[in-house]
Structure to design on (453 residues):
């Protein structure tokens, strides 16, 4: 018997998911409900809960993880005597290089990598990092992701349209039944976005009727642009959640104009899961304080103030198997100047400015955010659909450009002049290309600095 229409999401939400949780012992549904309650806690309660989680993490790491026991001893930090969240700053920063070097030596005693879930970072700025965590941690992270999708306007049990690189499709009967019973999904593979694949995605959308459009930020922009050019009207989401890369302002405008829905941006990574996300007010990205401690630091390691930009450092309060304590993300973020008007007790980031590896460098040592260069040129100079900046050395910059309507020789000259003014000692070369290819993980990079950092 088929179940369709608005009744199906209700059946999934109130009956099938609860049955699944009882049969499998899944933590995610219960954890999500707890997150729904905690988002209305007062700020003191949130900080007190974070401090309790931090103490437990440090106690566990000291007892079961030789790497962190040594770090804690060297820093003179006694887990049981941690009195404040500020005490965490006595510990050294954990770098990506250390994670790569130490590898599975970062695993806590009692955990076997063969029995853990694992994920790999994309490795776009170097060698990929392999991360290990338990099934429980995965479910808790999924619970926070669910809360953010609901902020966007999606509801539990409703189908999802995912725009993703190398998607994993259900292949067995069991997996297909599970997907239908919990969250039916359709996919557009970002490794092969063509007119035919977009038409096929639109046909699937009309058949399944997803309410959430979810995927790589730039891939959603590409879908919106192609859909507008091809006159596709079937894709009508109620919620849009871009992820995996920065959502640039001009891309947000196109996505929202084409689909008629505000995009709800989120920020996260494979290493620690969801870090922050917008709510329905769209006044900044709420930090996921239930599962993380997030610091935004200046070059001397001190917290920056409201409206200031700094380096993102994250402590994962969930993952005991492979702790990430004061992990340097290599991302830059700007702290919001005022709290979000929604009233949630979560501090907010105004904007993710970009990866440190995506900052281009001048000969005088100063750095320029690639996202700012892309945004300023694309919005000011007409006729450019997409662009990628590649800096091979201090004296040469390559601009890869996908020409749009109105692109002329004058456009080329204006674009090159803009970059010559920004990098006066560098030679600027422009190369017209048919498209900007995705990385092997399905993401796009708009600014690539190949200089040794």
């Amino acid at each position: 018997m088929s179940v369709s229409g608005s009744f199906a999401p209700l059946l999934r939400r109130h009956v099938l998911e609860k049955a699944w949780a009882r049969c499998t012992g899944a933590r995610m549904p219960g954890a999500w409900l707890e997150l729904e309650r905690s988002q209305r806690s007062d700020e003191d309660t949130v900080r007190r809960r974070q401090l309790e989680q931090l103490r437990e993490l440090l106690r566990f790491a000291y007892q079961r993880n030789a790497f962190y026991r040594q770090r804690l001893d060297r820093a003179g930090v006694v887990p049981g005597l941690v009195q404040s969240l500020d005490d965490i700053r006595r510990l050294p920063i954990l770098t990506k290089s250390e994670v790569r070097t130490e590898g599975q030596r970062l695993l806590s005693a009692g955990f076997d990598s063969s029995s853990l879930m694992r994920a790999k970072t994309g490795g776009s700025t170097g060698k990929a990092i392999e991360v290990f965590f338990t099934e429980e941690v995965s479910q808790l992270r999924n619970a926070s992701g669910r809360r953010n999708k609901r902020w966007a306007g999606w509801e539990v049990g409703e189908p999802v349209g995912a725009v993703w690189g190398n998607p994993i499709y259900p292949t067995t009967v069991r997996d297909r039944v599970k997907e239908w019973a919990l969250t039916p999904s359709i996919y557009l593979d970002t490794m092969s976005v063509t007119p035919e694949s977009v038409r096929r995605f639109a046909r699937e959308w009309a058949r399944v009727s997803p309410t959430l459009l979810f995927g790589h930020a730039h891939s959603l922009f590409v879908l919106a642009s192609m859909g507008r050019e091809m006159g596709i009207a079937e894709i009508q989401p109620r919620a849009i959640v871009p992820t995996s890369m920065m959502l640039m302002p001009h891309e947000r405008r196109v996505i929202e104009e084409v689909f008629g829905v505000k995009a709800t941006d989120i920020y996260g990574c494979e290493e620690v899961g969801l870090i922050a996300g917008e709510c329905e007010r769209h006044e900044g990205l709420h930090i996921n304080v239930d599962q993380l401690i997030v610091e935004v630091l200046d070059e001397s390691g001190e917290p920056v103030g409201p409206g200031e930009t700094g380096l993102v450092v994250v402590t994962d309060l969930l993952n005991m198997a492979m702790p990430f304590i004061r992990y340097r993300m290599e991302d830059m973020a700007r702290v919001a100047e005022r709290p979000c008007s929604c009233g949630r007790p979560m501090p907010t980031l105004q904007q993710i400015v970009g990866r440190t590896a995506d900052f281009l460098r001048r000969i005088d040592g100063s750095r320029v955010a690639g996202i700012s260069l892309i945004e300023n040129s694309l919005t000011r100079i007409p006729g450019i659909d997409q662009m990628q900046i590649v800096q091979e050395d201090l004296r040469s910059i390559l601009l890869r450009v996908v020409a749009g309507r109105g692109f002329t020789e004058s456009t080329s000259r204006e674009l090159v002049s803009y970059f010559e003014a920004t990098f006066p000692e560098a030679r600027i070369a422009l190369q017209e290309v048919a498209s900007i290819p995705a990385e092997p993980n399905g993401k796009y990079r708009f600014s690539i600095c190949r200089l040794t950092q």
